[in-house]
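<goal> How does this chain fold?
<sample>
Here is the protein in question

***
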Amino acid sequence: MNVNTLTAPPRSRPAEPVVTLHRPWLMPVLTGGLLLTSLLSVGVGAVAISPAEVLAILGHSLGLTGAVDETKAVILTGIRLPRVCLGLLIGAGLAVAGAAIQGLFRNPLADPGLIGISSGASLAAVGMIVLEVTLFQKLSGLLGFYALSLVAFGGACGTTLLVYRLARVAGRSVVTTMLLAGIAINALAGALTGLLTYLATDDQLRTITFWALGSLGGATWTTVLTILPFTIVVLLGLPRLAKSLNLLALGESQAAMLGVHITGLKRRVIVLATLAVGTSVAVAGIIGFIGLVIPHLIRLVAGSDHRRVLTGSALGGAIVLTAADALARTIVAPAELPIGILTALLGTPVFLWMLIKERSTT
């Protein structure tokens, strides 16, 4: 079960004005940091590849440079580059989804896990691993390795749809009811996941543990291309809702009077967040705290204007997850630390600081 779901449900804040801190350097710094982090990350590993060699290999692939070390070229283009690209996509998707969910619930402690996305994906994946039923066997025969990803994504979508339906009152979704329904479904999914884990064999337990802790180790170009369309839709769709989320910060009634279609806004945010988190869990397992911590840190620097928070969160999430993956590959080399453990170790102190700060301001 996602650690983030163990917290108390965030309360919607009273109406507050949208504050923009003028930091013209923020986006250029984040963009430069993203390029630098990516360049350094692809060179880290058992076989070190310098930034100059990375650029030379990439240039050789495009026919712009001469001969390069073939071994390093294979390692870079076949192993590390798809892994870094997957980290960039997942980090950006998780962070921008977290920022949008926080804007929807009007609380910086909100997280996509609160509406059951991660727990639903986890339950579906563990169920496929443990329960050897005909449907799962057929999927495995047809899709091979990607059957687990498809089932996990389906579980994320199904759980979120259930929470959304439970939260509908008189034809519209109520945020408070959605939070309560999400907590209940999270608890149920966690209990069922625990029961399935108890019934698992030793081999199945190893698979469940590796999947639940999160890893980018299975990255291939096929995996990257599989989630690329979903992530592009999310990265293009959520920033388009920034103005509506800014108005929602004033309260639902005020936003409605200013022309915001509240029900449509909630539906779009939830659907896009589910796409981002569901696809990431499906291909990399559960990676916590990115969607919770990164938007909050960007908000501290850029203010509460979602036009900057959503874009900044996407860049920041991509940077942090890519850097964390590089650290996970090297900190216990030649072994590899599951990235979910590392993000939890790094994110927990920040999350506790956020909780203490929230208590001091209430």
The longest strand covers residues 168-169.
